[in-house]
Structures are given as C-alpha cells and as structure tokens.
Amino acid sequence: MTPNSKLSLGLVLTASAGFVDAIAFLQLGGFFASFMSGNTTQLGVGLAGQPGVQGTVLVWFPAILIVLFFAGAFFGTLTVRACGRRGSLYVMASVVAILLLVGVLRREGALLVQPVLLLAAAMGAQNAAVQPIGAARLGVTYVTGTLFNAAADLACSLRGETPKWRWL
Fold first, then answer.
1. Region of residue 137 (phi > 0: left; psi between -120 and 50: alpha; otherwise: beta)
2. Is residue 133 part of a domain?
3. DSSP character for 133?
4. Domains held by the chain: number
C-alpha cells in the first residue's frame, strides 16, 4: 500500500468512525462506538455514584463498549500481523461485514444496543487496518489510541514480537 493510499484509507476510516459515533451517540443517549474517551467519561460519571438502575447502566454499558473496542483492536492486530499484506484487507472486510450486519439488524427492527456493541468491536479492529504513516496515526484519539496501542502490543507480545509485558 502506498503512503497516499494509506492516507486516503485513513481519512475514510476516520470519517466512518465519526459517522458511526454520531449515530451511536444520538441513539444511545451519550455512548459511543469508537470514541473511547467519551465512554471513559461516562464510566467516570457512573462510578461517581449515580444511584439505582441509571447508575448501573452508566457503569456497565461504557465498560462493555471499552472492552469490546479493546477486543476488536486486539483481534484486528492479530489478523494484520498473522496474515501479512492481506491482513488489513481481511480486517476491513470484517468491519464492512459488521457494518452491513448492523444495518440489516436495524432494518429488521432489532434493538439498537446489540448492534452498537458489534460496532465497538469493529471500530477497534479498524484501527489495526491502517499502519502508521511515518509518525502519524490517523483516526486515533488519546484514550482510544491508548487502548488500541495496548491491544496491539498484547497481540504482538503473544506472537513473540515484543516484550511480554509491554502492553501494560
């Protein structure tokens, strides 16, 4: 992949993550599929002591989204590393398949919560599809980038490519 095509793909992925997050935010009342900084903020609000059912949702829902994003980033990185040049293609095919599945589920009247959980994993995986261009990594925010880098380092350490505990 040439630097220009990586940049173009990165920009498309960044825009798609924003689109997916806008839908998730509007439909879920302030939760995100790819913006993990927003979910950690919501988690903090929940942990601060909101009582009752609402407080439980404010803790568990963002925590689940964060874990699924991490899992998507982890498995996306494993795929890219294990499959060489075609790894990014496989990851992006999986992301597109999940986006299409969510569209079908939504059209058929499924609750939005389950599809958004799938989107969080897909958004984590898509970060693995575009490797950095020089020192630049597109589509990564501070907390989201930290989670992605930890998942990528864990995947690489399991493959023996980096030190065992680097991901921590």
1. beta
2. yes
3. B
4. 1
**How far apart are the C-alpha atoms of 159 and 145, rounded to whole Å?**
21
What are the tokens at 11?
């920009």
Distance, CA of 6 to chain centre: 19
pTM of the model: 0.81
Note whether residue 11 is domain-resident.
yes
Q: Is residue 142's pLDDT more than 60?
A: no
Q: What is the spatial distance between Cα 131 and Cα 46, in angstroms, rounded to a whole number? A: 34
Over the stretch 124-135, which tens digit does the pLDDT of each residue have? Answer: 998 888 766 554
Domain that holds residue 84: 3-158
Q: Is residue 146 part of a domain?
A: yes
Element housing 138 (H / E):
none
Residue 9 vs residues 54, 61, 92: alpha-carbon distances, Å: 39, 30, 10
pLDDT-wise least confident of 34-38, 46-50, 140-144: 140-144
